[in-house]
Amino acid sequence: MKHLLRRGAILVSTLAASAAMAAPPHEHGVARLDVAVEPGRITLMLEMPLDTLVGFERAPRNDAERAAARTALARLADAAKLWRPDPAAGCGPAQAEIDGGPLAPGHAHGADHDHAHGDDGHADADASYTLECAAAERAAFVDTGLLESFPRLRIVHVQVATPKGQWKAMLSRPMTRLPLVR
Q1: Boundaries of every domain in the chain
Q2: What is the pLDDT of residues 135-156, one digit of tens each?
Q3: Biased composition, Low complexity: where in the chain (predicted)?
Q4: Distance between CA atoms of 43 and 15, rounded to whole angstroms?
């Protein structure tokens, strides 16, 4: 069992290192998704520009922007709508961790510098989802509601790592199924 857990951790680490080296530049309308399939678990890590979520990349400044931020964060947290794994994997409900950066209520930002922006003047939201599964290796796909939940999202660049290999894929409308096997 220890060997399997270590192997799973290696898959996630390899995927993260690979993503860091090959990360494309911040592009509005485009998200990045890393998927790791390991014994007992499917992990999905999403990075999306705030502009794609809400149309701006800073802390909300008025009631309409605060409402848009709340809606976007709620959609990101709705793991059941965003991720529907192959029933053959026997997965339970996904656990979500959302970092909405400047969209999050109470996000601190100073008058001199809006921390919503990175060094390049752009900001992203990050979300990770963990699905505990009886047989994750049996999952042939994950259906996703990303493109329908976020109308400004046009393309999702995907990196998949499984015990059987790694590859890249791309999702765009009207696609809703992400294959987990080649």
Answers
A1: 2-179
A2: 999 999 999 999 999 999 999 9
A3: 99-108
A4: 11
